[in-house]
Write a structure and sequence with these properties.
By secondary structure, the protein is α+β, with helices and mostly antiparallel strands. The chain is built from 4 helices and 3 strands. It has one domain: Ribosomal Protein L30, Chain: A (2-Layer Sandwich), CATH 3.30.1390. The longest helix has 14 residues.
């Protein structure tokens, strides 16, 4: 690749910089579960184990983060996956939103 950002015309293979690396972070979203006055801490941990298949230790750690800090990021991925996770959390009666990572 030449200094001007154009492929070189010499012998060999021209390699273009991949813009995917820059857009990977832009395409990442997170699901956030918020603390609420309704659900028991044990229920929140149960939901994380049941839906996300997290081990008990991780589920309890996330539940404590929700309880003590008011929120926790419980999953990361593309927008469609996070929309699915948010809907699932809401179906379990948890308060959940999504935002760009």
């Amino acid at each position: 690749m030449s200094e001007q950002g154009r492929p070189s015309t010499g012998t060999g293979v021209a390699v273009m910089d991949a813009p995917e690396a820059a857009t990977d972070l832009a395409s990442q979203w997170v699901t956030i579960v918020w603390d609420d006055p309704v659900n028991l801490m044990s229920y929140v941990a149960y939901v994380f184990m049941e839906y996300f298949k997290y081990p008990r230790m991780k589920a309890e750690k996330l539940m404590l983060q929700v309880h003590t800090h008011g929120k926790a990021v419980v999953s990361t991925g593309n927008r469609e996956s996070m929309e699915r996770d948010v809907m699932a959390m809401q179906n379990y009666t948890l308060w959940a939103t999504m935002e760009r990572a």
